[in-house]
Amino acid sequence: MKIGVWKVAMANPSDVSELAGLIDKGAVNPAEIVALIGKTEGNGGANDFTRGYATLCYQLLIGRHLGLPQEEVGKRIAFVWSGGTEGVLSPHATIFTRSSEGFADGTLRLAMGMAISRKIAPEEVGTVAQVKEVAATVRRALAEAAIADGADVHYVQVKGPLLTPASISDADARGAVTVTRDPNGSKPYARGAMALGVALALGEVSEDQITADVIARDMALFTSVASTSAGGELSDCEVLLFGNSPSSASDFRIGHGILKDAIDADGVRAALQSAGLVFEGTPNAEQAGRIVSVFAKAEASPTGRIRGRRNTMLSDADINYERHARAAVGAVIASITLDPAIFVSGGTEHQCGPGEAPIAAIVRI
Amino acid sequence: MKIGVWKVAMANPSDVSELAGLIDKGAVNPAEIVALIGKTEGNGGANDFTRGYATLCYQLLIGRHLGLPQEEVGKRIAFVWSGGTEGVLSPHATIFTRSSEGFADGTLRLAMGMAISRKIAPEEVGTVAQVKEVAATVRRALAEAAIADGADVHYVQVKGPLLTPASISDADARGAVTVTRDPNGSKPYARGAMALGVALALGEVSEDQITADVIARDMALFTSVASTSAGGELSDCEVLLFGNSPSSASDFRIGHGILKDAIDADGVRAALQSAGLVFEGTPNAEQAGRIVSVFAKAEASPTGRIRGRRNTMLSDADINYERHARAAVGAVIASITLDPAIFVSGGTEHQCGPGEAPIAAIVRI
Amino acid sequence: MKIGVWKVAMANPSDVSELAGLIDKGAVNPAEIVALIGKTEGNGGANDFTRGYATLCYQLLIGRHLGLPQEEVGKRIAFVWSGGTEGVLSPHATIFTRSSEGFADGTLRLAMGMAISRKIAPEEVGTVAQVKEVAATVRRALAEAAIADGADVHYVQVKGPLLTPASISDADARGAVTVTRDPNGSKPYARGAMALGVALALGEVSEDQITADVIARDMALFTSVASTSAGGELSDCEVLLFGNSPSSASDFRIGHGILKDAIDADGVRAALQSAGLVFEGTPNAEQAGRIVSVFAKAEASPTGRIRGRRNTMLSDADINYERHARAAVGAVIASITLDPAIFVSGGTEHQCGPGEAPIAAIVRI
Amino acid sequence: MKIGVWKVAMANPSDVSELAGLIDKGAVNPAEIVALIGKTEGNGGANDFTRGYATLCYQLLIGRHLGLPQEEVGKRIAFVWSGGTEGVLSPHATIFTRSSEGFADGTLRLAMGMAISRKIAPEEVGTVAQVKEVAATVRRALAEAAIADGADVHYVQVKGPLLTPASISDADARGAVTVTRDPNGSKPYARGAMALGVALALGEVSEDQITADVIARDMALFTSVASTSAGGELSDCEVLLFGNSPSSASDFRIGHGILKDAIDADGVRAALQSAGLVFEGTPNAEQAGRIVSVFAKAEASPTGRIRGRRNTMLSDADINYERHARAAVGAVIASITLDPAIFVSGGTEHQCGPGEAPIAAIVRI
User: Fold this and answer.
1) What is the mean pLDDT of residues D210-218?
2) How much helix, strand and coil, in percent to the nearest 5, is found in chain B?
3) Is B281 a residue whose pLDDT tops 90?
4) What angle (nearest 5°) sits at the alpha carbon of residue B318, between those of residues B314 and B324?
5) Catalytic site residue from C2, C39, C132, C159
6) Nearest CA in chain D to A60
7) Residue B11 touches partner A, C-beta closer than 8 Å
8) Residue C281 forms contact with D (CB below 8 Å)
9) Please, where are the H alpha helices in C103-231?
10) Is B50 in Cβ contact with C49 (below 8 Å)?
11) Above 90 in pLDDT, residue B182?
12) Which CATH superfamily is domain D251-364 in?
C-alpha cells in the first residue's frame, strides 16, 4: 500500500483547478483518489453551503475523468469539509490517493483505512449502540490499514448522522425514543458517541465504561486521536483512519499531539515531532517544507478562561465561538508550520480531555 | 520619574473592580494615574460603545476618589481603548501611574511623556500640517519623558481626529477643502499623518520627504514605533510616548519589534528580547511572569496572502478583516507570552512597512 | 392619577440630551419619572452592553437633578431596555411619569401600576413557584393602577432573573435542583414562567392548569398582553402594568392586538384601533401623529415558515434569528405608524399562541 | 410571443426540485427557458457563493434535459441571483419561458426582450462609453420585446462588469486609466452607468446630460424602472427588459412603482395597481394569489434617517446596511402581497431619486 498526499489551494469553493492540473500532468491518477479533507471559506454553520458546493465541483471534475456520473464519485470517494477559514486559515483540500505500488521497507510509514458503518437509526444516534457500531467500523478500518498496534493510529476522522426534524419524526412514527428532540442539541451526542467508538476500538476506554449516561457528559473518557463531525445528510458513519504501518510504502509519516488549550504551541511542536520532524523551537524553511498537512480541532475553553484570563468566545452574539476558536488555533499552528493552509475544525466532545483538542500532522519522510 | 504599570482584568466594560481594589489597598494612588490603555469586548467598529462605557466607568471611579467630576478626570488622564477581543484576547486595561519617587540608577528604565497638540482644523486632518503638528507634540513628549536618544523610544500611542459629517460641513462653511469628503475614508489619512508625525520627530523620515501626496499612499515611509488611531470625538492629537531613560527609577523596561506578518512569532520574541527578557524559544513561567504588557497592531495583508497562502479576511462580508487580524495576531502573541490580556488594535498606515505591524512590550526588570 | 408619556430619540446609547431638554424647560418633572422603556443599538445578545450604558447615563442625569446617587435612582425608576435596532428601528426611550394632578372624568384613560416580587431563588426560576409569585405581583400592580377589570389591561412588561453559572452553583451548594443547568437554556423557562404568571393573574389560565411540565412546553396556555424578559442581573421580578382606568386623568389611552406572524399588518391596525385610533387602511398624518408609543414582540416562526414560505431565520449562523424577526416586524409596524421609533423585542414563550406575538399601542386622546 | 412566469421555492441553494417537477409533468418546456431571477440564502457579499452554487445546479438540471453541457446552458439562459434573504424573505427563483404560441389580442400583456452588449473594457466601466453601450443594448431588447412606447417598460434588469484587481492590471498594462483603482469602489460607478444607460434609452435623461462627472454623483438623473448589479465574473452587460406589449399573448401583466423609502407601503400598492391589480388597502386572498412576482431594490437612506428618525444601518459594523435594508423592505412588501418569496436586492445608484427605490410586479391577468 502506498498513500499519496496532495494539498491543493482553492481560490473559491468551486475552484478545482489545482487538482485538475495535477491530473492533467499525470501526478495524480484520478482512479486512485480515495478521500479529500478540506477547508472552505463559509461560516461553518448550518447555512454554510460552501461545503456542498465544493463537493459537487470536485465530483464533477473527477467524474469527467473517470467517465462516471457525479453521484457515483460520491460513493467511491470520502469528502470531509470543514467550513470557516477565520484569521489566517487558507481554503484548501488535502487529497489522498491509495495504490498498491512500491515496496514496503518495514519502517513505519503512512497507512490509511476506510470503512462505513451500517445505517444508524435515529433512536441510536448518540447512544451506546452507535458507540459500538463505530468501534466495529474503526476495527475494520484498522485492519484495512494493516495497522496491528493501536499506538500507531494518529488520526481517525469520523462523520455520521445527527438528528433532524425528519429523523425525529421517523422515530416518533415507530414509537422509538431519541436521545434529544433538539436537532442542534443532538450534535454533542452524535460527535461524542463517535469519539467514544474510536476510544473503544483503540482501547482508550473499556466497554464497561460505556453507558448511556456518560455520552456527552463524562468528559474524563476520551480518545486522543479522533476528530468527529455530525451532519444531517448522513445516515451511516464514515471512518477515515490514518496511522503508520510497516506494510506501507508511502513517502510520509503521521504523528499526533494534544493541544492543552488554544495557545498551546508546545502541543503543535509535539505533533510535528511525533510525525518524525526533528527541530527545536521553530522549524526552519526546509523542515517546514516537509510538513504536508495538519489536522486539528479547536474549541472554546469550557471555563471561559485560557491561562487564567477570561475570553469572550462564548458570550459573543455576533461571531460564533467556533469561529473565534478556529481563528486562534489556526494562527498559533501556522506560526510554527509557516503554512496557513491547515485543517482546523470545531467540536471536541470526548476528543481529548476537557478543554483540550487533538492535532495530527503528516510529514514527508 | 517613576512609572507604575498595572494590568487589571475586566469582567465586562463597566467592571472597574480590580482598579478599585488596588486603590483601596493603597497599591495605586489615584492622583498619580496618568493614562489607561485597554481592550474592550465590543466589535471594534463605529457602533462599538463599550469604549465610551468603560471610559465613563473608570472616570466615575477615579473621580469619586479624587473628589472631581467625571469630566475633569477626562482632562487629566488619557484613555485609549481598542474594541474587539477576538479569539483568545482578554478584556483588560493597563494603567500607568507617574510619580517623582525613587532614585534613578542611570540604567535605562521605563519613561513616559504625554503631550497634546493644538486643535487640528478639519482641513488639516490627513495633511502635512497635521504631520508637522504631531511631530512637534511628539518632541514635547520626548522632552517630558527625559529621553535624549530617539532610539530609546519604543512605543508612541497617538490618537486624534478623523473627519465627520459635522467637521466637513464646518470646513465647507469656511470655504476650506478637506482631504476627502468620506468620513470613513478619512481614517487612513488621519492615522497615516499621525504616524508620519512620529516618524518625523524620531528622524525615521526627513521633512522634505513629507508632501501631501505621500500621506496614506507612499508606504515606504514609516515609523517602527507608533500606534495611531483616529476618532470622531477628538479635535486635538494626544501623544503617549514610552521609552527607556537613564533618569527613570521605574521597575520596568520597554522594547519593541516588528511583526512581518500575522504569524510572525519571531517578531514577538524580538520585542520581548528588546525589552530585556532573556529566553530561548518560549519563555518559561518565571520569564513569562515578568511580561507586564504587550501592545501590537494587527492588519490584513495588503496582498490577501500570508506566506503565499490566500486568506479570506478582506472578502468576508460577515466579519470585518480587522477582527480576523486581531484574532490571529493576538493568539500568536499569547502563545509566546502565555497571557491573553494583550493590547492588539487595527490600522497600520505608515506604522512599519506594508503588511508589517509594530509590537512593544513592557517587562519587569 | 395622571400618566405622562414622553418619547425621546437617542443619538447613541449615552445620549440623554432630549430628556435633559424636557427637564430643563419644565416639561418633565424628574421627581415624577417612574419608568423608562427603550431600544438601544446593540446586538441584543449576551454581550450587548448598550443597555447598561444607557441605564447608567439616564441614572446619572436624573440623579443630578434629584440630588441622588446613581444607585438610588435605579431603585426608584424601572429601566427596561431591549437591544437591537435592526432594519428601520430607531434608538429611543419612552419615559413614563406619574403624578396625582388632574381630575378623572370617568372615561377609560391610561393607567399604570408597578410592583416588585420577593427574590426568586435559583431553584424557583422557571417553576410553578415563580408563576404564582409573579401572579401575586401582577395583582398588586393591578390594584395600584386602579384597574378593576382584567380586560382593561393591555400591556404587562415583566423582567426577572434567569439562571447564571453563579446562581446554579448557589443552588448546588444548598442541594437545590434548578430547572436546567444551562444558563442560556434557562431563558425560555424564565420568560415562560413570568408570562404564565401574568396569564394567571388576569384569568387567561386557571391555577390548576399550571404544572411544572407546561412551563415553556405547552404553548396552548398563554397571555395576550405580557412582554417578559430575563436577565442575569436580577433576582426579583419587576412588573410594569399598563391599562385603562376610569380613575385616570391621563391624556392617553392604550390598546393591544395580536400579530399572527411577522407580516401581520392587520394585527398592527387592530392594536391602534383598540387604543381608540379611528382610521381605515393606513393612518393619515394627523392620526399617525397621535400614536405615541408601540410595544411589540417579534419571534421566528416555530415552523420556519411564514404564509407557507420557508424563511432562513433559524438556520442563519451569521445573524441571530431575533435580529431577523425584529427587523421584519419593526418595518411592518413602521409602515403603518409612520414612525420607526418602536419598541420591538424578542422571545415570546406563552406570550400569545405559538408563532404569534403581542403588540400594544399608546395613543393620545 | 408568450412569456411564461414560474416561481419555484428552494429548500437550499442546490435545490432544483420544483423546476424538475414542472419539467417532469410537462408544465415547463426546458427548451423555452430564457431567464431566471432569484434570491439565495447567502450573505449577499463578496464571499456569497450561494449564487454560483445555485446557477451550477440549475444549469446541470436543464443541461441534462436538453442534452447540453452545463457551460452551454449558461450561454442560452440568463441567470440573475441576489444573495441575502434577511427577515422574512424566502429563497426562490422566478423562471421565465418564451414561446411563439398563442394569439395576441391587442391588449397590453407581459413582453420581454434580452440583449447583450459588446465587451466593456476595464477603462470603460463606469464611464459615458458604458452608458451609451448599455443604452444601445436596451434599445435592442426593446425591439425584441416588441414594445414601441418606453412608457410600457416597467422593469429592466441589467448586470455587467465591475473592476477587479485583474482588470485594473489589464488596463494598466495597456496604459489605460480606470474610473477608480478600488475594486469595491467601482460598484457604484458600474451600477450607476448601467442605470443611466437605461434612462438614456428610455428617454428619462437626454444624451447631453450624460457626462463623466455625473455618473454615481448627480443623483437627480435617474431611471425609474432599472435594477442594475455589477459582478466580477462578467465582461459584457446583459439586459433583461420587461414591459407590456399589444403583440404579447402572455397571461400576465407587469407594472411598477417607486418606494419613497424603506417603509413606503403606498409605493408597494402603486406597483401592484400599475400591473392591473384592483384592490383597496390590502389585497384579499384571491387578489394576492394573482401576484406572481415582485422585484424591488432596497437601500439605506443616504441621510441615515427615515421619516425623521435615525436608523443604525450605516454605522452597524456587524450587519451590512444592505442586509438591514432588504429585511425591512422585504417585510413591508410581504405584509401587502402576503408572500415572502420576493426579489429584493441592494444598490440604487441612479435607480429612482436619492433614497428611493424601484419596485415592479407581475400579476396574472
Assistant:
1) 95
2) 35, 25, 40
3) no
4) 50
5) C159
6) D60
7) yes
8) yes
9) 128-144, 165-173, 186-201
10) yes
11) no
12) Cyanuric acid hydrolase/Barbituras, RU C (3.30.1330.160)
